[in-house]
Amino acid sequence: MRPGVTYYPNLARRALELDLLQFPGTTFSFRSGKELVYRMKLSPSAASRIYTCDLHVRPGACHPEVIVVDPNLKVLASGRSLPHVYPHAGKGAKLCLWRPQQQEWHASMKLSETYVPWTVQWLWYFELWLQSGEWVGGGEHPPTEKNKRRRTRKTIR
Hints:
Elements: H1 11-19, E1 27-31, E2 35-42, E3 51-57, E4 65-70, H2 73-76, E5 85-86, E6 93-95, H3 115-132, H4 145-156
Antiparallel strand pairs: 1-2, 2-3, 3-4, 4-6, 5-6
């Protein structure tokens, strides 16, 4: 690589990078050559359950996405609203792992050093939240549309 040039890995390089982690039970799939899906089984501690997570990577997308597909986090939450997740129409819960306004992640960064450990950390905080009801993972999360409308109504009054 040349000094001063930002490097953006392609999907094949991303797959190789993640493969070096050598996690048991991981799989890769390429969807129409436009998306890499890395399915991994993660456990935040030796005493924790195992979570199946999909890391979606698309060239040209703002950032990758992590979706916990199993177990169903909404069921585990027993009706409580999940903390630090984004709206997601498909199966699973789409995790909020970093603060986009703070630019904590950039496409030149390795997924194996960012998204994968951040996912494990999120799962750790999630399990603590299940027990205590308090999110201790810090961070900020953009308000939902419902909260934006509620805030706007309060401002107008």
